[in-house]
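Researcher: I'd like a candidate sequence for this fold, 98 residues long. If you have to choose between options at a position, lean toward the conservative one.
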């Protein structure tokens, strides 16, 4: 199977996903951009990343992905982002109280 054929499949899948629920599609792209931004910020600012900024942004992205997973009917992704959100809530609270 050629790379061109595989890329066309991915593009077609994205187009179908957008047509199925444009709001969810845009929200997921936004959450993806948030996660990339948080990861880049973390990597660039090590050893002292601005965790009080990064944590809430990442958690907001998790909430978006939780909603998207729920509307898509994806139990695995909903569970994954729910657990990540809970873990990060604990981390944020510990950071604030430290």
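Model: Candidate sequence:
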């Amino acid at each position: 199977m050629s790379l061109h054929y595989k890329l066309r499949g991915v593009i077609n899948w994205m187009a179908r996903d957008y047509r199925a629920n444009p709001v969810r599609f845009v929200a997921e792209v936004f959450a993806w951009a948030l996660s990339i931004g948080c990861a880049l910020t973390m990597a660039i600012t090590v050893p002292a990343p601005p965790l009080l900024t990064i944590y809430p942004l990442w958690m907001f992205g998790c909430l978006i992905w939780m909603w998207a997973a729920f509307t898509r009917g994806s139990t695995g992704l909903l569970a994954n982002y729910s657990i990540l959100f809970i873990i990060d809530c604990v981390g944020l609270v510990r950071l604030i109280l430290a």
